[in-house]
Write a structure and sequence with these properties.
Number of domains of chain A: 3
Shape of chain B: elongated
Helix content of chain A: 40-55%
Structural class of chain A: alpha+beta
Oligomer: heterodimer
Largest interface: A-B, 19 and 22 residues
CATH superfamily of the largest domain in chain A: Winged helix-like DNA-binding domain superfamily/Winged helix DNA-binding domain
Order of helices and strands of chain B: EEHEEEHHEHEEHEHEHEH
Number of strands of chain A: 13
Number of domains of chain B: 2
Number of strands of chain B: 11
Order of helices and strands of chain A: EEHEEEHHHHEHHEEEHHHHEHHEEEHH
Bound molecules: guanosine-5'-diphosphate, magnesium ion
CATH topology of the largest domain in chain A: Arc Repressor Mutant, subunit A
Radius of gyration of chain B: 22 Å
Shape of chain A: flat
Largest sheet of chain B: 6 strands, mixed
Strand content of chain A: 15-25%
Structural class of chain B: alpha/beta
CATH architecture of the largest domain in chain B: 3-Layer(aba) Sandwich
Helix content of chain B: 25-40%
Distance between the termini of chain B: 23 Å
Strand content of chain B: 15-25%
Number of helices of chain B: 8
Number of helices of chain A: 15
CATH architecture of the largest domain in chain A: Orthogonal Bundle
Radius of gyration of chain A: 24 Å
Low-confidence stretches of chain A: none
CATH superfamily of the largest domain in chain B: P-loop containing nucleotide triphosphate hydrolases
Strand order of the largest sheet of chain A: 2-1-5-4-3
Mean pLDDT of chain A: 90
Distance between the termini of chain A: 35 Å
């Protein structure tokens, strides 16, 4: 692995700013930074590129979630990039997320040494990002009503809903396509058609795995733990408890506001990493630090958020953190679209060809081994 | 730099806001501000300016009367400078605007005053094809001697201009003219307040440069755009009037290798910055 790394931001006013460097003696010229930036000009998604820049072999990382930011590794002569590509990519993701979350806490040397990294966005995170863009969430609702629809019609509908001429259907649709919720396809020569392939359900699940782990390994907290989980899901009357299946327009529905909140947490990769660790079992701060590679202060502030959002709880005496609710987003087969499709065929709103394409796609999406 | 200015009323309602540059996420900032105002009502700041960090940003805030004043700035900003600017903002607002029955709708004239306080950095981008004299112009402005050997710029070269030109910090973006770097231009002019399009005053180059004028108008429609008819010492040079006609923007003559043009050029840029501000305010 390389032992020199730096983080650059192209600021619209100040130009290239080296935000972090390790070691601090590393000298970088404006020309080098320019050439690195130039390498990534045509990129539209995450990429790690290796280039020979002046006297340095540099592997530079850029992704679309951090526009203007780069993480660059100075490779050593004996580094085999293909061997370490995954590690570099994952470490760069970690660095950029941490720069966003707690720039003061970014210690590049330590990150390299520990090998801290972040995985590529999970399906669950892609689902979550849908609910953070209002126009995208709106499109999903519309697709739930339509099942299949022409892109042109959706575009007009969306403009009308948002009351804006500038809204781009493509942009609003992108998170749905990325998450595999819809598929967009040309049928025939002129009709671009959108198919709903999956629907998603977002809720707080009881922390089953964590509870059963506690049952085995932390008998000291079990009773208290069960009680805290119970207090959320089945509090004593007159409280109603948590019922995510209540319809959205029901004033008691926990869904709308909560869904946005949970999504906001799931999409943040550092938060997600901590959540994932806690899904399997309760952990001490030291164990979490070991498992996630995150600095103590960052862990502390994320756990504090988890606590105030009723996601995690702390057992002070045992110094353990555990989930009280497990934010979850799951995909399910949208069976309600089948009658919609047959109505649309009989009313000649869609052609036989479109209908059979749709069934084809649904079949392929849901028959793959899980 | 100050990215945004907010003034909030008693209910956490936004009385005034202005953005000077993109900040991390506007939506959560507003949410944060409303919470902040509520919190501030419970403490006594004694009219002092305090700050709070949020990721890479730093919020400077002060309370006076019913109003909360906030700058969204960067962690790197000098806090004593921010305090000074905050005092100016509070004074002007309290003196001239806070007594109005509905300040939010009667703030004519306030904008320009806020600009004077908040604009600490002006971006001037120099655009033009290879070899027309952009880097030479930059050297002239900085009062530097010119290198003897022509060294083509790679990508973009960013330099500060001396203070004599303006009280604000001016950062000059000298964009490489070689065609292989042209894919950078659109991104590099982002947020520029002034764009200078340099030509070498040959017909061929001036005609090609019309494309640059278009690019700039598309990318930064609010920027003030001026043309430079450089290399006026050469016999083939078109007159600045002619260059201006072709480019359809105000255009000025220049001999970038001649130091005696420095003062004139400084005046031109100073005026462009002021006019840019005035046009933005009128829009
Ligand atoms: N005769 C003449 N030459 C100039 C003038 N301005 C610049 N040059 C020359 O033109 C060449 C290219 O200048 P440079 O500033 O590097 O161009 P850039 O590619 O636009 O940055 C250099 O050799 C300069 O000395 C001028 O006003 N008159
Ligand atoms: Mg140059």
């Amino acid at each position: 692995m390389p032992d020199a790394v730096f983080v650059v931001q192209l600021d619209d006013l100040q130009g290239f700013v080296v935000q972090k460097r390790h070691p601090t003696t590393l000298i970088l010229s404006e020309k080098k930074l320019n050439l690195i930036f130039y390498e990534h000009q045509q990129d539209i998604e995450e990429s790690l590129k290796v280039s020979e820049i002046e006297d340095m072999q540099i592997a530079s990382y850029w992704d679309e979630r951090h526009p203007g930011w780069f993480v660059c590794y100075v490779l050593r002569p004996d580094d085999d990039v293909e061997m370490i590509r995954e590690d570099l990519t994952s470490s760069a993701r970690f660095i950029l997320e941490l720069m966003k979350e707690a720039p003061d806490r970014v210690d590049l040397g330590e990150i390299l040494q520990r090998g801290s990294g972040l995985e590529v966005l999970s399906e669950e995170q892609l689902f979550a990002s849908i609910f953070l863009t209002p126009s995208t969430a709106l499109l999903l609702e519309k697709m739930q009503e339509e099942g299949v629809e022409r892109a042109a019609k959706l575009g007009i509908w969306l403009k009308d809903q948002i009351q804006s001429e500038t809204i781009e259907l493509r942009e609003a649709m992108a998170p749905l396509m990325d998450a595999g919720i819809v598929k967009v396809e040309m049928i025939g020569k002129t009709a671009e058609v959108v198919f709903l392939l999956k629907d998603v359900f977002s809720y707080r699940a009881p922390p089953v795995d964590s509870l059963s782990f506690a049952l085995q390994s932390f008998p000291g907290i079990v009773e208290d733990y069960k009680q805290r989980v119970g207090a959320f899901f089945t509090p004593p009357p007159p409280s109603k408890g948590y019922n995510p299946t209540l319809p959205v327009d029901d004033p008691n529905s926990p869904i709308m506001e909560d869904r946005r909140k949970l999504s906001g947490i799931l999409v943040k990769s550092l938060y997600y990493k901590i959540l994932k660790a806690l899904r399997s079992r309760p952990m001490t701060l030291a164990e979490l630090e070991e498992k996630t590679g995150l600095p103590n202060e960052v862990l502390g502030s994320v756990l504090w958020t988890f606590e105030s959002e009723r996601i995690a709880t702390q057992f002070k005496e045992q110094e353990l953190w555990a989930l009280v609710t497990n934010p979850t987003i799951e995909a399910f087969f949208p069976e309600y679209v089948l009658p919609l499709v047959s109505t649309k065929i009989s009313e000649k709103q869609i052609s036989q060809e479109i209908a059979s394409r749709y069934l084809d796609h649904l079949g392929r999406t849901w028959s793959e081994p899980a | 730099m100050i990215r945004s200015v907010y003034i909030l009323g008693e209910q956490g309602n936004i009385v005034y806001s202005k953005d000077y540059a993109k900040s991390e996420s506007a939506e959560s900032i507003v949410e944060f501000l409303v919470n902040l105002t509520q919190f501030l009502r419970t403490v006594d700041l004694e009219e002092k300016t305090e700050f709070m960090n949020l990721a890479a940003q730093r919020f400077f805030y002060a309370v006076k009367g019913h109003f909360t004043f906030v700058f969204v700035a960067d962690k790197a900003d000098d806090s004593s400078q921010m305090e000074e600017k905050m005092e100016q903002l509070v004074d002007i607002f309290i003196k001239d605007f806070s007594e109005l029955p509905d300040p939010a709708t009667q703030m004519d004239g306030f904008d320009a005053k806020v600009d004077e306080i908040a604009v600490t950095m002006v971006k001037v981008a120099i655009l033009g094809y290879a070899g027309v004299g952009k880097t030479t112009t930059l050297h002239l402005l900085r009062g530097e001697t010119l290198p003897l050997v022509h060294d083509p710029t790679i990508g973009v070269s960013i330099k500060k201009l001396p203070e004599e030109i303006s009280t604000a910090n001016i950062v000059l973006w000298d964009l490489a003219g070689q065609s292989r770097f042209s894919i950078l231009w659109a991104k590099m002019v982002a947020n520029a307040q002034v764009v200078i399009i340099v030509t070498d005053s040959t017909l061929e180059n001036v005609l090609r440069s019309k494309k640059l004028v278009q690019l700039v108008k598309d990318e930064v429609p609010d920027a003030k755009v001026i043309g430079i008819a450089n290399k006026q010492d050469l016999p083939t040079a078109l007159t600045p009037e002619r260059v201006g006609q072709i480019l359809a923007i105000p255009t000025y003559e220049l001999v970038a290798i001649d130091i005696s043009y420095r003062d004139r050029l400084i005046q031109i840029i100073r005026r462009a910055i002021l006019e840019g501000k005035a046009e933005a305010a009128a829009a």
